[in-house]
Amino acid sequence: MIVLAWGLLASNAWSQMPPPQLFSEMDGFHFLADGTPLPIWGYGWVADGYITLPGPLLTYTEGEQVDLNFTNPSPESHTIHLHGLDVDQANDGVPTTSFFVVTGQSTTYSFIADRPGTFLYHCHVTTTLHLTMGMYGMILVTRPDMTLFEGGPSYTEDVPLLFSDLEIATNLDPVGSFPFHTIRPDVFMVNGRADNQLELASQIVSYEPGQTLALRLGSMAYSRMMCAFPPELHAVCHMSDGRAIPEPFEVDSLEIYPGERFTVLITPDAGWDGSIEADYWNMADGFVEDTQFIRIRDAALDIDESTGTPWSGYPNPAQSIIQYPPALDVTVWDAWGREVFHGDLLDGQLHVSGWSVGTYVVRASDGPTSRFVVVD
Amino acid sequence: MKRILIFFGVCSTLAMNGQDTLWILPGTMIQGLDTMPALRSEVQPTWTGFNAVIDRSANTSNSIVIFNTDTIEHTWSTNAPDATMTSLPAEMATEVILPNLPQGSYRYSLIDEPGKVLGAGGLLRIGWTDETMFYWNLSEWQPSMMELAGAGEAIDWTLPYVPRHFTINERAYPSTADDPNALVAVHLNDTCFISISNLGHMTHVLHFHGFHVDIITSTDHPERVGWNKDTVPIRKGESMTVRLVAYQEGMYPVHNHNLIAVTNAGFYPGGMITTIHVMP
């Protein structure tokens, strides 16, 4: 199992150093809305031992001296470009002007998080391919007093919303994905989720009446985003690309191009339950490729769990323990429909170490199903 | 004979009035293994493959003489407010009046179908005199479409648009490093300005490594003047001026963050990439 091999590497390489925080791998899986596992490359927390799409949210405090440790056990070189943080050349993460982090190598990116705002990070090696494979994430630099910036408006909670997309054919065959200029995404995501995944309770943005939420909107998509904000949200755009906008403006629709970020404050009406509509437009010919909905609802409203939305117990296969809610009675079948496990998970942990490589279907006693994949 | 006579006539006018002249030149654009028919607006009657920049003073009326050496008529215009269209008859010189314009960056181009597909157009810089200036004329190129336009055939704009080449000043990376206007080479703490125009048929999004830039003028995003950004979309047909304060040394890429546009015929890296080089 990947997690075991990784654990050995980490303990040896970092015995005399602070532990690495982020690692990169090229053998992860991401579940599409229909449950199909799709190969991804990406970043993950070393402590977790698996990669995710998008990569982990990195959060820092304004003025913080950041030493971001990164190690790359994957078969190819990678970097971390700190998009928008205006770091110096050495820490810029561009291999030709900074350096590659080759297989087995570790490094530290150092910078001062001197500006609050929304930023991004991504691999800058063969960028066109490595991004569509999933090597990106969001960075938030915030202030302890919960104002957007010095002298700026206050808010109660950050809501990161990272738009991205991918082309299934490329992820299935990254080596054969040439030529890159013909990449045309066919999966469109918000925080790595799409369609019914965005209806999961964990993905719904909930609020208390009177609360002001800071929507941290960023795009790593190939598409042009067009987001529509219903008037009940009372949305006001205050920042772009980690800088205050000279004249904040009320926003009913907002274009977000690849690499751009915006911070929009919303103070939704009490009792509201609705969505921000996010359209994905092809950059070259202007066709609308897809629409996703970011649901926002008053926390006092009951969440209707009877919609049949499958819960997601296991977002990534690169670990040997799958965490489910505790005291869950589950049954697991392999890809041929053979029952391979049935029982109560008192601690919610399903141990898959030693299981055969393949796809499995798991069903909880109360009905919903999900899938996971065991890899070498 | 007609062509030569008109040519000398234009030169004579130039000598008296100090007007600039543009030559609309048909030629061939070569990018990698692709060879495409193309048009350029050049400052001399011989083909180099690079569109000219027109510099003018602010708030004064100007004119420019355009010699259309092509065998078909074209239509010329700018993205300045209240811009008018001017017909350029084949193999004729035409004087075009430029209106009073405030300081800024604008685009001039051919706007008839073959003219806009074949890429004759560039920057019209107004009111920049003592500043350190660079310019980026952005475009993308689809060879099959250019072949049709060069043959005088109609373009079906409802088909998916899949350009194969992406250029700054008609150069694709790494050739952008050979262009002193694409490569921003400045000294530490210098302030410079970059005139940017989008000659292509899609929005281009420039991401600056190492720096945020101030948006000084914009034809399509006037509400963004005064914004300080690291990722700047320039819409189809838009022109913009940004200010860069080079506060840290080093070499920092600037590239299109629509990542299909950092390729040459699908090869990475290529296309719309250049560099900011800040020297001590």
Description:
The complex is a heterodimer of chains A (376) and B (280). Chain A is mainly beta. Chain A is built from three helices and 25 strands. Chain A has three domains: 2-142, Sandwich (Immunoglobulin-like); 157-306, Immunoglobulin-like (Sandwich); 321-374, Immunoglobulin-like (Sandwich), CATH 2.60.40. The relative contact order of chain A is 0.14. Mean pLDDT of chain A is 87; it is low at 1-17 and 305-318. With 280 residues, chain B is mainly β. Chain B folds into two domains: 2-129, Sandwich (Immunoglobulin-like), CATH 2.60.40; 165-279, Cupredoxins -  blue copper proteins (Immunoglobulin-like), CATH 2.60.40. Helix content of chain B is 11%, strand content 44%. Chain B is built from three helices and 20 strands. In chain B, the strands form four sheets. In chain B, strands 11-10-13-18-15-16 form a six-stranded mixed sheet. Chain B has a five-stranded mixed sheet with strand order 3-9-8-5-6. The radius of gyration of chain B is 18 Å and the shape is globular. Residues 1-19 of chain B have low confidence and may be disordered. Classes of the chains: A mainly beta (376), B mainly beta (280). Chain A binds chain B through residues 81, 83-84, 86-90, 92, 94, 97, 126-129, 131-132, 178-184, 222, 224, 240-243, 245-247, 249, 255, 257-261, 282-287, and chain B through 159-164, 202-203, 205, 207, 209-212, 223, 226-231, 233, 248-253, 257-263, 265-269.
